[in-house]
Amino acid sequence: MSNLSCKLSRLCYRNPTVSLPRTSAGVCKCVATSQDSKTDYKTAVSRNANMAKLQAGYLFPEIARRRNAHLLKYPDAKVISLGIGDTTEPIPEVITSAMAKRSHALSTLEGYNGYGAEQGEKPVRALISKTFYSDLGIGEEDIFVSDGAKCDITRLQLVFGSNVSMAVQDPSYPAYVDSSVILGQTGLYQKDVEKYGNIEYIRCTPENGFFPDLSKVSRTDIIFFCSPNNPTGSSATREQLTQLVEFAKMNGSIIVYDSAYAMYISDDNPKSIFEIPGAKEVAIETSSFSKYAGFTGVRLGWTVVPKELLFSDGFPVAKDFNRIVSTCFNGASNIAQAGGLACLSPEGLEAMRGVIGFYKENTSIIMDTFKSLGYNVYGGKNAPYVWVSFPGRSSWDVFAEMLEKTHVVTTPGSGFGPGGEGFIRVSAFGHRENVLEACRRFKQLYK
């Protein structure tokens, strides 16, 4: 088609009533191009085969998708979300005021700063060391401040590479498994057992107190362990963590210890893996302000890589992690780090404990509700999650039933691994009136 014909066609499309002169080419017709007839351009780059191994969508976006579909079906329903573990209560003012002050200072010559240390600002690292690791032999030089524990999990996977074997608690936070799959550490997904090849799934059940007989667990290079556990809410005892450290030392393994809920522990169970003798030689610990101070959107966490932790050739793991951090990350937001300093002040710690106490009261309400209905309930005491057993039933079916009949979003246990089948995780993160209303609806459904 000539340039004139193209221009006339576009004019005809925009204004179909316009009168056009006849040309030797005949009558000008407006023809809509079908999208179906368009051929998409494809590059010559192959897709990462490891991405193709992943099953369906990541758990929490899938829950959000189903929630949105439910809202389309019931546009007037008051949907209550006790599924995704997102905090709901306002950040204490003592913390936000510190962030606001730092933010305003950035508009002055004296207060402005650009790039900071990738490892975190020195005062923040020092205060994390003093607050959480006093007398445990963890110095500020062992601490890397980040934009959250979840991000650091993947950065640690980059350190380990694809040629390592992996173990995870079953059930466990899905980021451990999915990051292992993406890095190429696993085999294909085995639908019959709902597991990936080359991952050691350490089954944690009510029958074993959510801590396995390690003598029956195969040796792997890396062991992901979360205490208090997401999703079961169980926290490991000192004796159990001593067994875990001894198991790792015997096998020459590295433990990646997720302590993101440690401040919820109200008994004498360890809040850090480094309370266990010898742990600095076999463990990394990652943690976060997300569930302590409501920083799920602010994004601030840290990872401890002790100088004593060495690879098989004697090279310090911390040096490689430092290289990954320096390559892939420009450091946590200076405004977020100002909030972190405020969190760890005496007033900030008191405020965080108040927020945690509020969520733990929610947990008690949820636990009492399901216990009154005759269900076996776990977790809750040292964690913001309640793990409810629905024996013989599909977790997704129970999730769908609750959503359809009560308009309450929960989390299906099978989304955390095959060991979670037959369970539902109920989050205590919610406004008090919503938690009370959700429990009232549960009682109506299951009475």
Automatic annotation (TrEMBL):
Annotated SUPFAM superfamilies: PLP-dependent transferases
Residue span, Aminotransferase class I/classII large domain: 78-442
Molecular function per GO: pyridoxal phosphate binding; transaminase activity
Gene3D superfamilies tied to this protein: Aspartate Aminotransferase, domain 1, Type I PLP-dependent aspartate aminotransferase-like (Major domain)
GO BP terms: systemic acquired resistance, salicylic acid mediated signaling pathway
Highest taxon in the source lineage: Eukaryota
Keywords of the record: Aminotransferase, Pyridoxal phosphate, Transferase
Name of this protein: LL-diaminopimelate aminotransferase, chloroplastic isoform X2
Lineage of source species: Eukaryota, Viridiplantae, Streptophyta, Embryophyta, Tracheophyta
